[in-house]
Amino acid sequence: MAIIDINADLGEGFGIWELGDDLALLDVITSANVACGFHAGDPLIMRRVCAAAVERGVTIGAQVSYRDLPGFGRREMDVAAPELTAEILYQLAALDGIARTEGGRVAYVKPHGALYNRVVRDPVQAGAVADAVRAYDPALPLLTLPGSALHDVADGLEVVAECFADRAYTPSGALVSRREPGAVVHDADAVTRRAVRMAVDGTVAAVDGTEVALRARSICVHGDTPGAVTLARSVRSALSDAGVALEAFA
């Protein structure tokens, strides 16, 4: 029987601005990627999300990013490796400290946005992220794409592969850039079918129709897209109906 985790990005509001329905998504997912304040989120939001996740038994992950609040962490930046390592440590320690005051802890790390895509292909930036996790707690898994450079630089760290039910893929297995049309799949039926195929068959159709293999332990559903909660519920229900066990990886 296939076993899969469902993760989503949460805590991505800031101050009076809200993005997504965190509480509703926490009733659906098994792992929460919580923004740590560099691309979104603030201390109050972080605390609220951590408390709600602990209450529901949802695993907490640190969603670390480039320091880019105006660009929501989606603008690629050239950050020296030592500085990037320190910035990842800063975010990880902040969220973990807040999570522990609420009776939980950070159980894994997932890069966000431009940093996520950068570490897939850049071993230097990937190494900087891995160094931060290794320095803070080498038992923490890293969540990334199956072909990410993080796998090559992990050096003893656990790296967990994930896939995206609502993102388009290139034939090489990379995510289509959000600058390109069709990068995000909005059709609920299509997203649900893709999620089941990913979990059961370990494949997805790329934008050119070719089949891409992507054995993954976790499926990401985005929380900042229209109808995100309804879509997440549909994905969870379809996975259960297909006989897939839903279980956090950390």
From TrEMBL:
GO biological process, one term: carbohydrate metabolic process
Database matches in SUPFAM superfamilies: Glycoside hydrolase/deacetylase
EC numbers: 3.5.2.9
Domain of life: Bacteria
GO molecular function, one term: 5-oxoprolinase (ATP-hydrolyzing) activity
Keywords, comma-separated and alphabetical: ATP-binding, Hydrolase, Nucleotide-binding
Family: Belongs to the LamB/PxpA family.
Protein name: 5-oxoprolinase subunit A
Species, as recorded: Actinomadura litoris
Gene responsible for this protein: pxpA
